[in-house]
Amino acid sequence: MERWLRPGPDAAGLAADPGRVHTEGRVVRALVEEARHHVAALVGTSPRQVIFTSGGTEAINAAVWGATRAAPGRPVVVAGVEHSAVRQSSLRLAPVVAWAVDDGGRVDPDALDESLRRQMAAGDPPALVHCQAANHEVGTLQPLAAVAAVCHRHGIPLHVDACMAMGHLPLAFDELGADLMSVSAHKCGGPPGAGALVVRRGRRFDPLLVGGEQERDRRAGLENVPGLLGFGAAADVLTRPGVLEAEAEAARRQRDDILATARAVDGVAAVGDPRHRLPHLVCLTVAGVEAEAVLLGLDQRGIAAHSGSSCSSESLEPSPVLEAMGVDAERSLRLSVGWSTTADDVAAFSQAFAPVVEGLRRLGA
Fold it and tell me: What is the pLDDT of residues 128-161, one digit of tens each?
């Protein structure tokens, strides 16, 4: 499906401060609020619950900051498959209680229920529970409704990192009953540098960024107007009837074609939950060769892949996500498709993958 920006003010007009009362400021304010309306519709809440940020990382940090400030010294529950922004922001501000996952990267709501019971009995209830909507490396979907029910039963706030799911799966924040949700524009076809923290109605917390009264005094700083308008434009397209479903189905077909090509090579297997998974992403393990060599071979043939999340590209450490699942991180790679992926792109992978892997295996023999 095509993405586009609706014609609007010229670049000079977008430079106006939406917090000012002059005409230029009021025009930009109206455009920002229209974008907020579209984003709110896409995640299933009201516009007043959407706090614009510079991206998913800031939204996650703001969620952890606000929750831990409201309950100082209390622990935070984090599964090993959560994004580094979730793990690191939590470790910096609070004691962390680990939450195990199965070999598909999926959490167990019953295990969470038991852990919360013990913590409540010990007089040390968590300040926050994290549960991602979908994993950013292997595509596994989490049982969000069941997790939200457990958190609600114990009165513990729940934060959902929905950055990877937004624009690929339906989101219904109000129906889910979560307290906080982080989303990012670039994951759904919008521009980088824009995101949002969605906050349940009636929940108040200290803002991460202070020094101004933007976002109804919930996030200081002049808004990234072009980025937010792009975010709103992408959300507008995805909320039109049938668009999200059509894109997900197209991505699913392309992903399955990629998976079939990869599995035709001996020693290649898919990682992650085989049933509960994103439509557009697959993680593979390749026996006998290291992932970096495969990625470089594919790159030489014009195919961009990755061995982990985008935030681990400069790290020499194994992926914590794959380690938590018991997977050899050095022999795994991630492939994803998007709204701009074509049949020719998938065909190029099909033609390149087997020769790259088999050539590397011959070199290592």
Answer: 999 999 999 999 999 999 999 999 999 999 999 9
246-289 residue pLDDT tens: 999 999 999 999 999 999 999 999 999 999 999 999 999 999 88
Distance (Å, whole) CA 283 – CA 325: 12
311 is catalytic: yes
Task: Name the β-bridge partners of 286.
Answer: 268
| CA 283 to each of CA 69, 198, 277, 308: distance values in angstroms, whole numbers, following the listed order | 37, 29, 11, 9
| Structure-token pair, residue 16 | 């106006």
- Tell me which H or E stretch contains 86: helix 84-93
3-state secondary structure of 229: helix
- List 131, 151, 188, 311, catalytic entry: 311
Domains in the chain and their CATH numbers?
11-238 (3.40.640.10), 243-364 (3.90.1150.10)
Q: What are phi and psi of 50, to 5 degrees?
A: -100, 120
